[in-house]
Amino acid sequence: MIPYVDVPWALWAAPALALFVALLVLWSYRRRAGRLRRLATSELLPRLVPPASARAPWVRAILQFAAVLCAGVAFAGPRWGTEQTLEHGSGVDIVLALDASLSMLATDARPNRLERMKEEARRLLALSGGDRVGLLAFAGRSYILTPLTVDRGALELFLDNLDPTVVGQAGSSLSRAIRQGTDLLVATQTTSDRALIIMSDGEAFEPAEEITAAAAHAAEAGVTVIAVGFGTEKGSTIPVRTAQGTQAKRDENGQIVTTRYTPELLKDAVTAAHGVFIDAAATDKAARIRGALAMLRRQARETESETARRARFQLFLIPALLLVLLDSVLSTRRGRTRRAPAAATATALALMLLLVPLTLRAETGDAADKLYEAGRYPEAAAAYQREIQEHTDSPRLEYNLGTALMQAGQLEDAVAALERAATAATSEDLRYSALYNLGLCYLRQARDAKASEATTAYASSADAYKRALQLRPNEVAAKWNYELASQEKSKSSSGGANQPQQKQQQQDKQQQPGTLDKRQAEQLLSSAQREERDVQAKKQRENQPERPPAGKDW
Prior knowledge:
Blueprint: E1 4-5, H1 8-39, H2 45-48, H3 51-54, H4 58-76, E2 78-80, E3 83-91, E4 93-99, H5 113-127, E5 132-138, E6 142-149, H6 152-160, H7 174-186, E7 194-200, H8 208-220, E8 223-229, E9 236-237, E10 239-242, E11 245-248, E12 258-259, H9 263-273, E13 276-278, H10 285-293, E14 299-307, E15 310-311, H11 314-331, H12 339-360, H13 367-373, H14 377-390, H15 395-407, H16 411-424, H17 428-447, H18 451-471, H19 476-494, H20 499-511, H21 518-540
Parallel strand pairs: 4-5, 4-7, 7-8, 8-13
Antiparallel strand pairs: 1-2, 2-15, 3-14, 5-6, 9-12, 10-11
Helix pairs in contact: 1-4, 4-11, 5-6, 5-10, 7-8, 8-9, 11-12, 13-14, 14-15, 15-16, 15-17, 16-17, 17-18, 17-19, 18-19, 19-20, 19-21
């Protein structure tokens, strides 16, 4: 892995500063020597000044040069390798029950009720760092989007795709949402308190008794119910898209539907559950929800996370301090005894320079690696295969095997090995490298395949690079190859006339990733995210909403 630094300019400034300090030491010596020459003649000077004080301070200049250089590199913040960390926090268990009925498309709240609800949900997630949150969408029935999780990325993804097509049955049923949210919270083992947050316009077509019964059941289960309203009591029409364009929603009799904010049902629910009601007219709803949750009992949690690069500044800061200390010791010595520490300094520096590369090369040096470095890829692959037989649970050996097979041209076997490495790897570095080479294998397969097979191979390559970019969104080479695979997939499936010429242009871009400007890099970065959202949206929209039994489908 290529080392990363927090302050890149410090790497360029460190050698210049170190050289300046060394020259300053020598200049200071020259000035001192000039003053000594004016003090006495050359014959008398050795009697007045110890010989060691008049000696040129080359050792001191070298020590200070090395110390400043190491300190500058440490200040730059070098990073490489990976580490596992535990994040400590505390929180409660929350289920967000979000109204996804057609009435939430009403525009009496700008831009509409649904978007305002999403905005408050996102702000609440940002304020709920240590909480486990589950998402539940409801209309005529309720549908669990995510279980209780601390993965904010997954929650944001489902929030982005939330719309009335998510739930399979149209209409509005608060009681079903309350019961399913309560069941989801109760089914999870925890020592913290639980809260069910209902965000809705309150317009439901069911008896109030069912809603209050569900809310009372939640209270008995120890679940705090918080209801948050959206919309206005004046109401608004519901814009829906049809073949003729956007039109106002009509009921089964052909009359235009006007949906209104109905706080009564929400108030009934929180009254039965002894919960908290936040009116639609209230400002900063997310902060008010956090205030209601502040009184709940929280559970301490430890979340394991993987830091991509480990800070290594101490490998340079410690030698810098030792060099400064050594320089201080030598500057207090006199006479002939000074030469021995100087020799010891050189020995210490030599040992330091030998030990650091050994640490960095600790993972290489076996027979298979040497064969690979020599370009004997089939033999290296065979050697890795023998090592895998002895170490069957080593993702790194699988990665090395797949890379050697790819270089040897055995692409199908390479794909299998890299897939195993990407699946089993616990290190982000190893998983990213395996996915990157996996995408490259599919690209090479596609260029030698027939049209129909090429489309599949390009799609597999794009998927591998998309997974790699989810680990490291800023890797320029992976962005180029992802864009290449995506465009080639589209061209091979459509059979474009200019395909050969365009393919060569994309290959040139792949070979020169440094030509990206900021705007192109941002576009390529968002392409994988857009595709992931499209996939999730397609899955969520597979079921067409059914009309509710009562006929009111908003």
